[in-house]
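It is worth pausing here to work through a concrete case rather than discussing structure prediction in the abstract. The textbook approach is simple: state the sequence, then state the predicted structure, then interpret. We follow exactly that order.
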Amino acid sequence: MKVRLGIVLALMSAFLYAFNVIIEKKYVNYSDSFSILFMMYLGAGLGLLIIHLINRQRKKRKNDTKNKLTKKEIPYVLLIVICELLASLLTIEAVKIVDASLVSLLSVFEIIATSIFAYFIVKNPIEKNEIISTILMIIGFIILNFKSGVLSNISLGSLLVIGGCILWGIENNVTALISDKEPAYFTSIKCTSVAIFYLVFAFWNGGIDLSHPILIILGLFTYGLSILFYALSTRYLSASKTTIIFSFMPMFGVILALFIYKEILTVSFIISFVFMLSAILCINTGIEDA
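Step two, the predicted structure:
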């Protein structure tokens, strides 16, 4: 039952998170990256803080003594904030260059990054299906980047997305290290901290644009609840296993992007999609052993 709950939470996290690229693609033409990310992370941080406060009152009534963040976890939280800050910035910059469907598809590489860092950080073994999946992803990546006519743009966008995936891979494993702590609380701290940094960057870049307040509400769902569900999922699954299930996010994102923006499918994209979908299905074969 715990494994199934972890799977459901990871899938919910993936579906909500898939909307990030879709939303960012819509607003990058009307506002600057810093302002967009500030409002989305602000909504996530404030929303989760409210959830945490409600949850804390409930636990007081039940006399529940849940572990809280201590000084020992501060370095973990700082590292998580830095990774989230840089990864989200790289991703939104990629959205400016290439189609939302392409950004979503390349986000599959977060699986590779998480598995590799899980091996070095928490000593999780790399399984055979993960190796096969990685090979399939790399083949799909090579095919995708030989899309004729826009090779330079695709390559730059790909590098930005993969850079973000590497950072999120680190973050996923660090998050797992403190997954027994109150998830709404530390996720609120993370999102609020990232929002503050983006607020500073926005003013440094010329000023904050608050003309799209709907982003605050959207941020609660796409960043806040998504990250919260991911953190909860790591309670029942390892970081690498949670990310394996979360790996369906790019597929959700691709489908949403193609449906909403009517992006044109190319032969190379379709072939790459098949390889990466095969990689996801392959890596999910061992999930019940989590």
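Step three, interpretation. The chain has one domain: 2-289. Residues 148-152 have pLDDT under 50 and may be disordered.
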